[in-house]
Amino acid sequence: MPYEIRRPGDQPRVKPRLSALGRRVVAMALLLALVIAGVAYARTQAANRREELAQQVVAAVERSAVVCANALAAVKAPAGTVAELQSFLSRLEDSSDVIAKAEVAQEMISWCLPYAESSPAQVDELHGARNRILLAVERYNAAR
Prior knowledge:
The chain is mainly α. It is built from 4 helices and no strands. It has a domain at about 50-144.
């Protein structure tokens, strides 16, 4: 291999450049990488949004359990109703699907309404809890 001495006045050697086809291939590869990254980011954001909406449904279901317990306590429901309420609460805990939890909660509210008929405030609370669940489920289903 020959030894080359470069002087300050010498012209630099010509660097190799990509051909027109090579430049196009590199540009397409970069564009494809940007599109793939954008799609992956969009999917991640959509999954995060669905998870957030699922958490809102679960929060509405948990709120409905509190509202039902408060309604039964406020109208001094019979002692057997507390055991039935506990069965609904255990079904809520056993359900892993968000929609199934919402269905059980709505069933629990429907079961609780006849006991709370004597108190309009408790009936309003129960209907409000049902509406919160319906709205959260509607938003969750729209995002799916």
